[in-house]
């Protein structure tokens, strides 16, 4: 009979523990995996979170203050904008009133001189020029007055010769007006026939130069034209420097001067009687630089019809003109406005002449 070896309980327990140890390890791992993670905050981390909270609170406070400041700024800007608009409106109103007040003397003066002419029978108005046409019929003669306000100096110019541009060539006032696209025109300086042409008398200034050189005034001849600034200039000039100082833009020559600085000048005896009466073309200016052109009619050049120079001199003075110059007359007198001949030329038709003063819209 064999003997069984005796195993002590302590040995059995050890063997059992060794056998189940792997399973216990596995169960322990599975249990740990199923548990939620635990986070332990250390004191330093808690202090950091507390600091962040304080900064957030300060930022919210700063943002609130910034929003309040922005709201106040917007309100201030709105008030400033309203005040600016009110101030601008007031300034605009004051400027308008000042402009109106400044224009009143001119308007009053214009009404005064216009009242002496009567009611215009025709007007031309643009941003460059204003033209008013009146009838003149004082008794011994009749004709037309054309008052011109040059708002732009370029609204008046002079033509010389014809399309060919050759010295001595001529054309009618109507042709000059049509060729240059003008709204109105009158005959200008005198002329002399010869050398198969009709040549301007004395000094003629055109397109920035003296056409035949400067010729000192002689035999009562006088220059009349416009300066570059749009002012009427004229008189007797005995040196080119005298005329150059007035900055001429264009001009022609004839005789005589009728008024200077609001005073009558002496009319040469020859022009008092030869002819006594005739169709005339005269140009003058008011103290505000408006122009007045008189064109009187007559049926011939023999001294029996039309106006005398003394009559026109007196008429211009009464109308308030301060400077006035006689242009070529007789059959040369012509006034064209809005595409028609206004006066009745004594030749029965327009006479071709070398120079014309033209007006543009």
UniProtKB/TrEMBL annotation:
Signal peptide (from-to): none
Pfam family, one: NAGPA
Coiled-coil parts of chain: none
Residue ranges of domain Phosphodiester glycosidase in the record: 180-360
Keywords: Membrane, Transmembrane, Transmembrane helix
InterPro entries the UniProt entry points to: NAGPA
Membrane spanning stretches: 12-33
Record protein name field: Exopolysaccharide biosynthesis protein
């Amino acid at each position: 009979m064999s003997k069984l070896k005796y195993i002590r309980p302590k040995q059995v327990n050890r063997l059992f523990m060794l056998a189940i140890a792997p399973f216990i390890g596995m169960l322990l791992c599975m249990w740990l995996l199923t548990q939620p993670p635990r986070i332990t905050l250390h004191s330093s981390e808690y202090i950091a979170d507390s600091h962040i909270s304080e900064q957030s609170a300060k930022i919210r406070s700063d943002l609130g203050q910034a929003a309040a400041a922005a709201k106040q700024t917007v309100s201030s800007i709105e008030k400033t904008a309203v005040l600016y608009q009110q101030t601008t409106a007031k300034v605009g109103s004051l400027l308008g009133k000042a402009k109106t007040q400044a224009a009143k003397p001119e308007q009053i003066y214009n009404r005064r001189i216009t009242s002496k002419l009567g009611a215009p029978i025709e007007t031309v108005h643009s941003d460059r020029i204003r033209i008013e046409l009146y009838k003149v019929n004082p008794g011994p003669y009749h004709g037309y007055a054309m008052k011109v306000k040059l708002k732009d100096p370029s609204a008046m110019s002079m033509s010389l010769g014809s399309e060919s541009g050759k010295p001595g060539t001529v054309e009618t006032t109507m042709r000059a007006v049509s060729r240059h696209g003008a709204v109105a025109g009158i005959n200008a300086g005198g002329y002399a026939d010869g050398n198969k042409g009709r040549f301007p008398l004395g000094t003629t200034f055109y397109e920035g130069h003296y056409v035949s050189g400067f010729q000192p005034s002689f035999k009562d001849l006088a220059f009349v034209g416009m300066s570059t600034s749009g002012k009427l200039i004229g008189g007797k000039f005995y040196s080119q420097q005298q005329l150059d100082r007035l900055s001429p833009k264009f001009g022609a020559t004839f005789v005589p001067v009728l008024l200077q600085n609001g005073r009558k000048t002496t009319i040469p005896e020859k022009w008092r009687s030869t002819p006594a009466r005739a169709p005339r073309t005269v140009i003058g200016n008011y103290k505000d630089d408006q122009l007045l052109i008189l064109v009187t009619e007559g049926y011939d050049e023999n001294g029996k019809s039309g106006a005398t120079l003394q009559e026109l001199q007196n008429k211009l003075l009464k109308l308030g003109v301060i400077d006035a110059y006689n242009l070529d007359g007789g059959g040369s007198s012509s006034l064209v406005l809005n595409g028609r001949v206004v006066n009745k030329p004594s030749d029965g038709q327009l006479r071709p002449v070398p120079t014309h003063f033209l007006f543009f819209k």
